[in-house]
Design a protein that fits this description.
271 residues, alpha+beta, 6-stranded antiparallel β-sheet, 4 helices
Length: 271
């Protein structure tokens, strides 16, 4: 009888040990599964090789390298972070980071790319040194092409929205000087792009005014007044195919006076 009792007790203890082992194995399996699940969840931002890096020449011995550090893919955009190094005569001068956002429209066509801190579309800025290189990268990201609305004449030359009134004609600079401080009618405020363009031509001023000679769909011809100290300069600019195409000074008041006039057909003549 005692032998039977001991045998039953042994079988009971062995069964409990086996169940404990199974429970432990099961818990370990669940823990391992949890670890695997957690490791399989990755961020949309990934570090990348510098395969989309590039260098631009900014003139006068200046060069800037853009080395890709990481990129983050969203639903309709891709953010690429660059490590930027500026060189002067091949010697590094400054180092910092910049992030550019490439965006597509509903048809997965490239519609814009811009700094993360500035929403201005570089795709429409022909004066940008980065446009060409970033366009190549954007074309690799969104392979279907560029959105049509970015190929139209989107260069904003004044802050106000059209339609625009043309300059009041006939206009004669000499008569205008005699009528001061009366202002020329139908003036508009030049955009930042236009002012930057004027500054690049050596016409940085304290006040600017813009006047339209024509506003065709394909081109726009304007006259801009630049006031600096006691002097005022007048320049003629033509915008065609989304670019500043012609530029010339047509008149000035101050140390040197140059007269011009505009007839009823909006033809400009110096005299």
């Amino acid at each position: 009888m005692r032998t039977i009792f001991i045998t039953i007790l042994f079988l009971f203890l062995f069964s409990c040990k086996e169940n404990t082992t199974d429970t432990k194995d099961t818990n370990t399996s669940i823990a391992n599964d949890s670890i695997v699940t957690n490791n399989s969840t990755s961020s949309s931002e990934t570090k990348t090789n510098s395969n989309e890096s590039f260098t631009i020449d900014c003139g006068s011995g200046c060069a800037m390298t853009y080395n890709e550090v990481s990129r983050k893919e969203n639903k309709n955009s891709v953010e690429i972070k660059y490590n930027v190094i500026q060189y002067i005569n091949e010697n590094p001068q400054d180092e910092y980071s910049e992030t550019y956002i490439f965006e597509s429209d509903e048809n997965e066509l490239l519609k814009s790319f811009h700094l993360s801190t500035n929403s201005e579309n570089i795709l429409n800025d022909d004066s940008s040194l980065l446009k060409n290189e970033l366009s190549k990268i954007g074309a690799k990201i969104f392979t279907k092409g560029i959105a049509k609305n970015n190929s139209s004449n989107t260069l904003e030359i004044v802050n106000e929205k059209g339609p625009y009134n043309l300059i009041a004609v006939p206009f004669d600079l000499k008569k205008y000087m005699n009528d001061l401080p009366n202002e020329i009618k139908n003036s508009y405020t030049p955009s930042t792009k236009l002012i930057d363009y004027l500054v690049s031509k050596g016409y940085e001023g304290e006040n600017y005014k813009c006047f339209f000679l024509n506003t065709d769909e394909k081109s726009k011809k304007i006259i801009t007044s630049i006031t600096r100290g006691d002097s005022e300069y007048f320049v003629s600019i033509t915008v065609s195919d989304n670019k500043f195409s012609t530029f010339s000074e047509i008149g000035s008041i101050g140390e040197e006076t140059k007269y011009f006039k505009i007839d009823k057909n909006y033809t400009v003549a110096k005299y």
